[in-house]
Amino acid sequence: MATEAKPEDDKPITVSLQDNSFEPYEIEAPSLELKTTKNELRAMYRDMAAVRRMEMAADKLYKERKIRGFCHLSTGQEAVAVGMEKAITPDDQIITAYRCHGFAYMRGASVKSIIAELLGRREGIAYGKGGSMHMFTKSFFGGNGIVGAQVPVGAGIGFAMKYLGRPNTTFALYGDGAANQGQVFEAFNMAKLWGIPIVFGCENNKYGMGTAANKSSALTEYHKRGQYIPGLKVNGMDVLAVKQACAWAKEYTVSGKGPLVMEFVTYRYGGHSMSDPGTTYRTREEVSYMRSNQDAIQGLRNKLMDWNILTEEEVKDIEKEVKEAVDAEVAAAEAAPTPDNTNRILFEDIYTRGSEPDWMRGRTVEETFYYKE
């Protein structure tokens, strides 16, 4: 039986964060006292459980060869997407790299639309044409496959917010493996020069593909990489710390103080992608330790019971609800039709629907496609 909502569950409560939640650089750290509600805490747990269940379903479908091509999962990293979304509004902007399923879900995409996209189905979030690395929804600019290239695009989105006079920030996310890309530092420079309201967020999951951070980066404290931009390291395995940090970062950037660099210290349980077993460059014991001692979902589960927010039975009810809901949407995605093998489907989404030109040239003159026939 689902936990019944009570009026007092929306009353503000204050909880204390762990002492190691933040490490600031050239700035004061956020408070370790977080204001939240019982309902928000429940929602955080439900959302992280849903993202993980969805990613586990994608893992299974890939191994069954129903999902093909690239597939990058965020199992273990759920706290970043969930905590960030709880701290901002739908009108704030997010752009990230290819480990994007959880962000798409938190930005409003359904499990069905995400799994259908992975399966190449017509009802996918990008109509089955984008796959794992290219998912978009309102105020979410993907899902980008070129390493680090989304960072300057994020700076452009942030500039647009400033130019239009909107009270919104932009989170431009990238991994530790992209942190040494030149365009990242070019974006830092431009954002500082122009006072762009943007948070450059490095999701440091310790391994860029199969290379440990200390073997690729001379400075592994990624929150200090901005040099002339203040930074903050965040415990990315604690959804409450992520929420507090992101709310603080939004307030800082939209107040006219310019950009921030943040580092979310997190961990992926699987490999870089589904084609990577993830065990040749790290030990099984390391992964097992992180699962047992640092897991974001289990950590919040323990807090909810320690703080008498939920009983163990209520937690199990939430987990059962999530399992049933996600599994139903996954089944619906599997049953969704594949796109028809026609030129109309092929050319349909080059332009936003309704804005197409009269015609589009194919490989040859004979393959020219006319939209308004």
TrEMBL record:
Signal peptide: none annotated. InterPro entries: DH_E1, PDH_E1_Alpha_Subunit, Pyrv_DH_E1_asu_subgrp-y, THDP-binding. It catalyses: N(6)-[(R)-lipoyl]-L-lysyl-[protein] + pyruvate + H(+) = N(6)-[(R)-S(8)-acetyldihydrolipoyl]-L-lysyl-[protein] + CO2. It comes from the Eukaryota. Its cofactor is thiamine diphosphate. One of its GO terms (biological process) is pseudohyphal growth. GO terms for molecular function: pyruvate dehydrogenase (acetyl-transferring) activity. Residues 46-340 form the Dehydrogenase E1 component domain. Keywords: Oxidoreductase, Pyruvate, Thiamine pyrophosphate. Its EC number is 1.2.4.1. It holds the Pfam family E1_dh. One of its GO terms (cellular component) is mitochondrial nucleoid. Gene3D superfamilies: 3.40.50.970. Transmembrane segments: none annotated. The pyruvate dehydrogenase complex catalyzes the overall conversion of pyruvate to acetyl-CoA and CO(2). PANTHER family: PYRUVATE DEHYDROGENASE E1 COMPONENT SUBUNIT ALPHA, PYRUVATE DEHYDROGENASE E1 COMPONENT, ALPHA SUBUNIT BACTERIAL AND ORGANELLAR. This is Pyruvate dehydrogenase E1 component subunit alpha. It comes from Dactylellina haptotyla (strain CBS 200.50) (Nematode-trapping fungus).
